[in-house]
Design a protein that fits this description.
Blueprint (H helix, E strand, L loop, with lengths): L1 E5 L3 H13 L6 E5 L2 H10 L4 E5 L8 H10 L5 E5 L4 H9 L4 E4 L5 H24 L3 H4 L11 H18 L3 E8 L2 H8 L1 H16 L7 E4 L4 E7 L4 H16 L2 E3 L2 E3 L3 E8 L6 H17 L5 E3 L2 H22 L3 E10 L5 E12 L3 E3 L1 H11 L2 H21 L7 E4 L2 H4 L4 H12 L6 E6 H6 L1 H14 L2 E7 L6 H6 L4 E4 L1 H4 L6 H16 L3 E5 L4 H9 L4 E3 L9 H12 L6 H10 L2
Helix pairs in contact: 1-5, 2-3, 8-9, 12-13, 14-16
Length: about 575
C-alpha cells in the first residue's frame, strides 16, 4: 500500500500516520510531503496507490490544489482531507473527481482505512468500465456505476425531444425519482452492497422502459426519466405507478432481501413549461413535495406549488426575523410514570407565534430551518429557554424534574455542541441531571464513532441521553450496546394500534424487555387511550407521553397541572410566563 500524504500540518500528519500504522498494513509505504510542489515532484518520481491531500498548503490553496494533483495523477484515487470550513470546497472536489473527503477530527483508523480501500476499488472499477464501455467519450455522458446516461446526456436528449414536441404539438413528461431512506440502507448494508443495489435497480428500470425513453442517474440515489409520446395525464400516472411497482419488488443483495420505495415528481410539456430548465426544476420540486409529506408516492407539478414556493421564501425571511423579535415560544409535554401517575419529566417543544399568521405549526417551519441552517440557532434558543424555564420552576418551589430536548441532525453534528450545552447550563444555573438530550435513532446511526464519542462527553457532564423514535431505524443490538443511553423512546407508530395489533404488541414487549436487560428506562410516545395505558403497564413500561394525559402546554398551564399532580401552590406564574414569551 503506497500512500502519498500531502499535508503541511505536523500534528495532523502524525495523527494520520499513527492511524495507518495502527491498521497494521504489512506493506505500508507512506510518503509525506508538505507542499503542492513537493507532491507533484513525488508523483513524477514514484508510484502510488492513492493520494491523501489537504486543500490548504503553503504554496497552494483551495480547489486549485486538487485540480493540480488530479491533472498530474489522473489515474490515481484522491481523498481530500478537509477542515469544517473547507467542506464546500471538498464537496466541489468530489463533484470533479475526488473519490472521497474526510473531515479532520471526525474519522478514526477504521474509517480512514475503509475510505482508502473503497476509493481504490472505485477507481479500479472506473478504469475497467472506461475500457469496457468505450473510453472517455462514453464516460463523459454516462454514469460510471450504472452505465446509465448522466445529467449532461439527459438534458441533451430532453432538449431534442422538446424541439420535436414543439414542432409536432406533442406531449412529453419529465420524472424525478428519489429513493426513500437510502442512507439507512447504506448504513445497514455498507457502501459496496448499496452500489450493487443501485446497479440492479438501474438494470431493472432500463429493461422495463421503452427504447424511445431515457432514464438517467443524476445523483447518488436520484434518477431522471424522460417519457416521450405521452398521450395524457392519465397515461403519465399509469407509467409512474408502473415504475413505483418495479422499484417495490424485492432485491436480493449478497443474500439479503432489500425492499425499496421511491418518491416521484413529474412535470408535463407544454402545461408546466417549454424549456429544459423549467421542466426539470418543476419535476424536482414536485418530488421534494412528496418527500416532505409521506414519501412513497407520485406528484404532478401544479401551479399551487409555485405559489407555495413564494410562501416558503416569505416564511423563511420571517423566521430569520422571528429569532431577533422574540416570536418563539417553548411548550412542554409531560412524561408520566406508569407506576405512580406522577409527572416524571417534560419534553420541550418549540412554537412560533407569528404576529400576522398566528401560531405556526413546527411541521411548517422546522423543515425550512433545517434547509437554511437556521435550525442551529433555533436549537440553541430552545435549549436555553427550556433550561431557564426548568430552573425557574425549581426556584419557585416545584419538584425538580428533567426537561428533554430533541436535537436536529445538523445541530447534533456541530462540533461546538458540548461547549454550547455547558455554557447554557452554567448561565441558567440548571444542574445537568435535569437536562436530557434526545437524538433520533437514524441520526445516531449516521456516524456511530462520532455519536459514541459525543454522547460520552455529554454523559461525563452529567446530562441524560434518550434515543428517540426507537424501532424505526436500522440499528442493531451491537450498536445499541455501544451507545451510553439512559432512555429509549418507543415511536408512536408502534403505540397507535395497541393493544389490537399483535405485531406491534410483540415489538413493544421485546423493546421493553431489551431495555430492562440493558438497564435503560422506556418512554412510550403517542399514548391516547386507556387501553394503551393498561397494556403498557402490563408490559412494565416506565413512562408514557401523549394526549391521553396532556397535550404540549405553555408554561402557565404546565404549572397549573403540576399544582394538581404534586399539590404545590402556584407561584411566580406571571414571571415564568413572561420569560417563556420573551425568550430572554
Amino acid at each position: 500500500m503506497r500512500v502519498l500524504l500531502v499535508d503541511g500540518n505536523d500534528n495532523d500528519v502524525s495523527l494520520i500516520e499513527a492511524m495507518l500504522y495502527k491498521a497494521q498494513y504489512s506493506d505500508l509505504q507512506l510518503t509525506r510531503v508538505g507542499s503542492l510542489s513537493e507532491a507533484l515532484g513525488a508523483l513524477d518520481e514514484n508510484l502510488f496507490n492513492i493520494v491523501l491531500t489537504e486543500l490548504s498548503l503553503p504554496d497552494s490553496h483551495g480547489f486549485g490544489t486538487f485540480a493540480c494533483l488530479q491533472e498530474q495523477a489522473s489515474d490515481l484515487p484522491i481523498i481530500v482531507l478537509s477542515n469544517n470550513e473547507d467542506e464546500g470546497l471538498a464537496a466541489r472536489a468530489i463533484k470533479h473527481g475526488a473519490q472521497d473527503y474526510l473531515i479532520k477530527g471526525h474519522f478514526n483508523d477504521d474509517s480512514l482505512v475503509r475510505a482508502i480501500r473503497h476509493s481504490i476499488e472505485r477507481q479500479r472499477i472506473t478504469v475497467e468500465m472506461q475500457s469496457a464501455w468505450g473510453g472517455e467519450q462514453h464516460l463523459a455522458y454516462h454514469d460510471v456505476l450504472t452505465n446509465l446516461p448522466n445529467r449532461l446526456l439527459f438534458c441533451d436528449r430532453l432538449s431534442q425531444a422538446l424541439a420535436h414536441a414543439k414542432r409536432y404539438n406533442g406531449l412529453l413528461a419529465v420524472l424525478f425519482l428519489d429513493l426513500d431512506d437510502f442512507k439507512k440502507i447504506i448504513n445497514t448494508l455498507g457502501h459496496s452492497a448499496a452500489e450493487k443495489l443501485l446497479q440492479m435497480l438501474a438494470t431493472r428500470l432500463r429493461s422495463n422502459i421503452r427504447a424511445s425513453d431515457t432514464i438517467a442517474r443524476v445523483g447518488g440515489d436520484e434518477f431522471s426519466i424522460l417519457l416521450k409520446g405521452i398521450k395524457s395525464v392519465d397515461d403519465l400516472a399509469r407509467t409512474a405507478q408502473k415504475i413505483s411497482q418495479l422499484i417495490a419488488e424485492p432485491f436480493l443483495v449478497d443474500e439479503t432481501t432489500v425492499r425499496l420505495t421511491c418518491s416521484l415528481g413529474a412535470s408535463l410539456f407544454p402545461h408546466d413549461g417549454n424549456s429544459v430548465e423549467t421542466l426539470i426544476k418543476k419535476a424536482d420540486f414536485a418530488m421534494y413535495r412528496v418527500k416532505a409529506r409521506n414519501k412513497n408516492d407520485c406528484q404532478l407539478f401544479n401551479t399551487a406549488m409555485g405559489a407555495e414556493t413564494g410562501q416558503r421564501i416569505s416564511l423563511e425571511n420571517s423566521l430569520r426575523q422571528a429569532l431577533a423579535d422574540n416570536e418563539l415560544r417553548v411548550h412542554f409535554q409531560p412524561q408520566v410514570s406508569l407506576k405512580t401517575g406522577e409527572i416524571s419529566g417534560v419534553e420541550a417543544l418549540i412554537r412560533w407565534k407569528h404576529p400576522k399568521l398566528g401560531l405556526i405549526p413546527p411541521a411548517e417551519f422546522v423543515p425550512i430551518a433545517e434547509d437554511t441552517g437556521l435550525i442551529v440557532p433555533l436549537g440553541e434558543w430552545i435549549l436555553r429557554a427550556a433550561c431557564m424555564q426548568n430552573r425557574m420552576m425549581q426556584v419557585a418551589g416545584y419538584p425538580p424534574i428533567p426537561v428533554a430536548i430533541n436535537l436536529s441532525a445538523r445541530q447534533f453534528r456541530e462540533i461546538s455542541l458540548p461547549e454550547v450545552i455547558e455554557d447554557i447550563l452554567q448561565d441558567t444555573g440548571l444542574a445537568p441531571e435535569y437536562l436530557v438530550i434526545e437524538i433520533t435513532e437514524s441520526n445516531a446511526m449516521q456516524d456511530l464513532t462520532y455519536t459514541v464519542s459525543l454522547l460520552e462527553v455529554l454523559k461525563e457532564m452529567g446530562v441524560g441521553i434518550a434515543l428517540d423514535d426507537f424501532g424505526t431505524g436500522y440499528s442493531s443490538l451491537s450498536y445499541l450496546k455501544r451507545l451510553p443511553i439512559d432512555l429509549l423512546k418507543i415511536d408512536k407508530v408502534f403505540v397507535r394500534d395497541l393493544p389490537a395489533n399483535a405485531d406491534d404488541a410483540a415489538i413493544i414487549s421485546a423493546i421493553i424487555a431489551l431495555a430492562k436487560n440493558m438497564h435503560m428506562r422506556v418512554v412510550a410516545e403517542g399514548v391516547e387511550s386507556a387501553s394503551q395505558v393498561q397494556f403498557l403497564q402490563q408490559t412494565e413500561c416506565d413512562f408514557m407521553q401523549g394526549f391521553f394525559f396532556s397535550k404540549p402546554l405553555p408554561p402557565s398551564a404546565l404549572l397549573e397541572l403540576l399544582d394538581t399532580v404534586h399539590r404545590v401552590p402556584v407561584r411566580e406564574v406571571n414571571e415564568l410566563e413572561t420569560y417563556a414569551e420573551s425568550g430572554e
